[in-house]
Amino acid sequence: MKKILTALLGAILIILVLAVCFLGYRYLKNPVSVVPFPYEFNYTFEKIKLDAPILIVGDRMANHLAKFSDDLAKTISSELSSPIRIQSLASPREGIHRTIHRLESISPWPQILVYQGGSEEFFEPKFLPSEIKTIRKNFKLFDDDRIETLMILYPELSRLIYHPFERIKLNKESVYQTELSEKEFLTRLETEILLYERQLSHLVKMAKDKGSLIILLTTPVKLNAPPKKTCSFTTSIELEAEEIKIRKHLEDGNLKSAFSEIKQLTMIYSSNASLYYLHGEIALQLNDYNEAYTAFEKAAAFDCTSWRSTPLQNNIIRKVAKEQQALLFDMDRFVQSSGDPRTLFYDDIFPQNLYYERSMQQLGLVIKKILKL
């Protein structure tokens, strides 16, 4: 009996030692982080003091949008004795992770925060591909409302709860990647999309905690810009032969046959970017804008490289706005509904100035109503 008790106590002692080692390892390896983002900043901004009640933040899209802030101010201030001030901290090539980090240095926050972005999220590495499984595990933990609440109340517990992994260290000077290979792009895609949603949701919660009204803007996407790359696994010799056949129909002016055959092909090959783009081109020639819009949207979504915002990012913005009950100004749909997609943009990224002016006027009316001016 004595031997049994000794063995039992020994086993308990070993379990306790292993548990202490396990928790100690996690505590030492994990930083304090309410949200398990896979990166850390090696720098902080100096305190930023705002001199305007409205602040625009985001990447190149928000930076370009800010050039039309006078139109926004004019609409909001139409019945005021002096124009309302609008400030911008938007910056080209600034992913939402850096926007959030910049906003942490602001006190107090603006009355209204306007965010537009999602077009440059792939340009800077934010996680190690080897850590993708662990990153997803940690976000699965964070998705549990009980754990999220626990993290918010007791952030130090994050060092024990999250699975340890190597985080990327981000310096003040960003390091941008050259064009990704197809393999690198596909490896990163799902995690980049996951991160963008979590970061955007975090931004909305930050704004609410700081007493700011946040307005999310979708990013206009030039849908009739051809995709840069079609993923190799979505095509075949047979499909390429069918595309040649359809293009021959177009050369012969046989639009109806081309349209009929392309619709059948897109049902079979459901993720080929160039095929959807050809579908959109044919629909456009038939003046079927709705069909063209849908096809071009899929072509952009299945583009096998990262050079702009796509419907994926815009759908995340719409989703987060709905779930977090944030105000949404759907600039993408506003621009797309303005006419022939061939005339909406002056290059592959930015809409014509006319649509920025109209968008700012519409946004101004929304803000004016909110402020009861």
Describe this structure in words.
- This protein is of the alpha/beta class and 373 residues long.
- Helices cover 52% and strands 7% of the residues.
- It has 2 domains: 27-222 and 308-373, SGNH hydrolase (Rossmann fold); 232-301, Tetratricopeptide repeat domain (Serine Threonine Protein Phosphatase 5, Tetratricopeptide repeat, Alpha Horseshoe), CATH 1.25.40.10.
- It has 15 helices and 7 strands.
- It has a 5-stranded parallel beta sheet with strand order 3-2-4-6-7, with helices on both faces. Strands 1-5 form a two-stranded parallel ribbon.
A few lines on this structure:
This protein has helices spanning 2-29, 60-65, 69-76, 96-103, 132-142, 145-153, 158-161, 182-209, 237-251, 255-268, 273-285, 289-301, 311-323, 331-336, 353-371, and strands spanning 39-41, 54-58, 86-88, 112-116, 168-170, 213-217, 327-329.
